[in-house]
Amino acid sequence: MPEEATGKTGVPSEARQKPERPRDRLGRPLDWDLPTQLHLPDFDANTPEENHELGRRFLAERQCFGAHEAWETAWKQSRGTGDEEFFKGLSQMGAGYVHLLRGNAHGTTTLLERAIGRLDAYPEGHRGVPVGEVVARMRAHVAAVREGTLVPGEDATFDPPPV
Questions:
Q1: Which CATH class is domain 21-36+46-147?
Q2: Where are the domains of the chain?
Q3: Rounded to whole angstroms, how far apart are CA atoms 73 and 51?
Q4: Measured distance CA(119)–CA(124) in Å, rounded
Q5: pTM attached to this predicted model
Q6: Which phi and psi angles does 29 have, rounded to 5°?
Q7: Bridge partners for 29 per DSSP
Q8: What proportion of the chain, given as a percentage, has pLDDT over 90?
Q9: Between 11 and 138, where is the model more confident?
Q10: Closest-CA residue to 106 (of 91, 95, 117)
Q11: What number is the average pLDDT over the span 15-44?
């Protein structure tokens, strides 16, 4: 795997804060003058464990962008702990399902395959996640998108993995 970026990249700090961009309910950026349709908690104020629980809840509710953001924050908070690749995999899984709901088949399969590669390296039950079942569900979704039996879009019919 490529080495992670070093330095300020991806590390939250007061100096790096940007204004919160308005987003639609699927997390797509809206024009700056429009009201946001997506309200998420301040993930940076939480522990990695709290963000993991939020990610689980958001994914179960098919709020995939929120799940992605929660796990992405947990990933950045977990650097150097041995769990960074696990949370990065969960974040990529969330992003893959964001792409599914946004109608992007290529983004769906690419990100879910990256997530599979990362999560498959962890033991069953890691941080309470049934890794084998999650990986199997993602593999089935990748195959279904490629076969055309799972059609990407806001009305895509799928059961999120049981994280």
A1: mainly alpha
A2: 21-36+46-147
A3: 7
A4: 10
A5: 0.86
A6: -65, 140
A7: 23
A8: 81
A9: 138
A10: 95
A11: 85
Q: Quick one: tokens of 159?
A: 């059961």
Tell me how many helices (H) and strands (E) the chain has: 5, 0
Taking Cα atoms as reference points, which of 153, 146, 148, 124 lies closest to residue 136? 124
Classify the C-alpha dihedral 1-111-123-81 as positive or negative.
positive
b/e burial code for range 32-69 (CB count within 10 A of at least 16 → b): eeeeeebebeebeebebebbbebbbebbeeebbbbbbb
Q: pLDDT averaged over the chain?
A: 91
For the cut 60, the answer to whether the pLDDT of residue 80 exceeds it is yes
- Angle value at C-alpha 89, between 66 and 117, nearest 5 degrees: 145
Per-residue model confidence (pLDDT) at position 20: 82
